Write a sequence for this structure.
C-alpha cells in the first residue's frame, strides 16, 4: 500500500513553506526552519526526507 509522507505529531512547528502543494513541517528546537518529512514504516520506525518530493518518491 502507499505510505503517506507525514509530519511527526509530537515534534511540530509550522513554518511558512509550501512545496508541491503540500505544507512542510519542521522539527521543534532546531533553530530556523529545516524542513523534514517522514515516511512511516510499520516495523522500523520512520525514514526521514528533507523534501516532500523525495519523501513522496520513496513512499509510493
Amino acid at each position: 500500500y502507499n505510505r503517506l509522507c507525514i509530519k511527526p505529531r509530537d515534534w511540530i512547528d509550522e513554518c511558512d513553506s509550501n512545496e508541491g502543494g503540500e505544507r512542510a513541517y519542521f522539527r521543534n528546537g532546531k533553530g530556523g526552519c529545516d524542513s523534514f518529512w517522514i515516511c512511516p514504516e510499520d516495523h522500523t520506525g520512520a525514514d526521514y526526507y528533507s523534501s516532500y518530493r523525495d519523501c513522496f518518491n520513496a513512499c509510493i
